[in-house]
Amino acid sequence: MVKKFGLSALALVMMAGAGLWLGQGGTTGALSFAAQAQETAAAPAEAPVVPDMTIGAADAPITMVEYASYTCPHCATFHSEVFKQLKTDYIDTGKVKFTFREVYFDRYGLWASMVARCGGEMRYFGISGILFETQKEWAASNEPATVVENLKKIGRTAGMDDATLSACLEDGAMAQAMVDAYQKNSAADDVTATPTIFVNGEKHSNMSYADLKEVLDAELAE
């Protein structure tokens, strides 16, 4: 069973700013962030760029896109049982160019994505792997402050300092831009559940490595 979309993008943005949420005390922080989002809507400014995160050879014969959430258990399973082997057999060998697109079911997933992106493209996939591998630990608490501290620990492991991590988590404009990008991309690709995979534009749902290998090998044989 895959995780299906539930919360609206707007609701997620209202809950987005981890630093604002914690720094101003729970609900007050959330309302402050909402007001900030409304101000942005009233007086448009240039939105931050939210680049696709991609690894693999630019000229690879197969382009693969995955939509997944850092709080989706099935996505964590996919990354432990499928992605690692995919990377070894197809990405690292120049056969697949892989793009990861984040899906946000809740504020924890959005905050995790903000930390992953905080390290830039060079650190992104390493942090992403840690987030999936330790999902049951960092996302287990019902306390936002605990989750933020858990995410900061992961960021520190990747070599970032607290000032950098706090700045990323408090970046309301980037949170808004990330949710906008997620909403635009998922609507364009008709993504309603995670993980969802596209292989050279063809849509697939969650699958085993053996099934994915069959799809990839068929593409390579054409």
TrEMBL record:
- Domain (Thioredoxin): give its ranges: 31-221
Recorded superkingdom? Bacteria
Q: Which InterPro entries match?
A: Thioredoxin-like_fold, Thioredoxin-like_sf, Thioredoxin_domain
Tell me what organism the protein belongs to: Cereibacter changlensis
A Pfam family assignment:
Thioredoxin_4
What biological function has been recorded for the protein in this entry? May be required for disulfide bond formation in some proteins.
What is the name of the protein in this document? DsbA family protein
Keywords, ordered alphabetically? Signal
User: Which residues constitute the signal peptide according to the record?
Assistant: 1-23
